[in-house]
Amino acid sequence: MLFDQFKGTNMNFRKTALALSVLGAVGMSGCGGSSHDHPQVSTSVEVFDGFGLGCAVSVNGVAAAELGGGSYSAVGTFSDGAVFSATGCTDADTDAKLPALSGVAQSGGVAISPITTLIVEAARAANPGADTATVSATDLTAASTAIVTNLGLGSYDPVNPATANYVTAAAAAPTSASGDVMKQAMAISTLLKASEVSAGAAAASAVAAVAEAVANSTSVIDLAVEGNVTQLMTDAAAVDAAVAAALAVASTAAAANVAAIANAADAGVAAAVTQAVAVVLNDATADNVADVAAVVPPTDPIDIGDTGETGGGSTGTGGTGGTGGI
Predict the structure, then answer these.
(1) Residue 233 lies in a domain
(2) How many domains does the chain have?
(3) Among residues 305, 313, 300, 293, which one has the least CA distance to residue 249?
(4) How do residues 53-99 score in pLDDT, each as one tens digit?
(5) In a domain, 303, yes or no
(6) 183 assigned to some structural domain
(7) Quick one: which of 65, 31, 70, 26 has its CA closest to 48?
(8) Do the Cβ atoms of 72 and 169 come closer than 8 Å?
(9) Does the global pTM surpass 0.90?
(10) Contacts of 221 by beta carbon, 8 Å cutoff, 6+ apart
(11) Is residue 49 part of a domain?
(12) How far apart are CA 169 and CA 176, in angstroms?
């Protein structure tokens, strides 16, 4: 399949996504009755190379401190399925304000991206009575299979921290399979951000409705076709009547440019379109988000894979404890 090459790789994170590596370091316990009898676990969360800047990262009510250069640190023990969230992030390359994103801990690492956000929300929708702070293995597998299949991602695994990264390959070869995943991520991120802005206080419900619509689709959704984006948003509106009007506005505002991102000649051009949309969308409100429709997609690429910061994560590696998402 197109995305088989991602398996077993350790590439840096990129585009409208957060790749988080969770590293557990357990202190040695001492003798006698004290806190030493209960080793403290310090968990380091790193947004590789600082591509997701200014994020508020948290898990199970524990806030991760931003250390600079895209690195974050939390203290606690987090099992597989624990839901991590990242809000208030800005993409380093395009300056796009990202939507609220989420992902789950898996095998000592966490991949957070627009695609994992759809998966988390789809899993919650399938089991509404479950604890929202965690996703069971069964629900995660079902939701991941549905989202990956319906977005046409083949064997690509966005929730596996060991296989979710693509930035280095995409930056080196923007027309590669890595570049295709990057385009999908940017398109979804733009659509979710437009939905959030249009829905205002009901932003979370709007995103959840889009996720459920993707998961419930009976066919592959090719986001490179504007009509498919429009139909997806129509299906999302049918999921939740309370946000139907807002999703209709978001669809009118963003569908053409979302398709332009997904259909771009390469990842650099897709990033340029994302950047142009962000100029309007970053400061848009529910009253004027429709102005996004007037953005003319550029055709020249911009550079990708450069945070513009020093002191970020290492290039080519994702740290000691795992790699992370798209």
Answers:
(1) yes
(2) 1
(3) 293
(4) 788 989 988 887 777 665 667 677 788 999 999 999 888 889 999 99
(5) no
(6) yes
(7) 70
(8) no
(9) no
(10) 150, 151, 152, 214, 228, 232
(11) yes
(12) 8
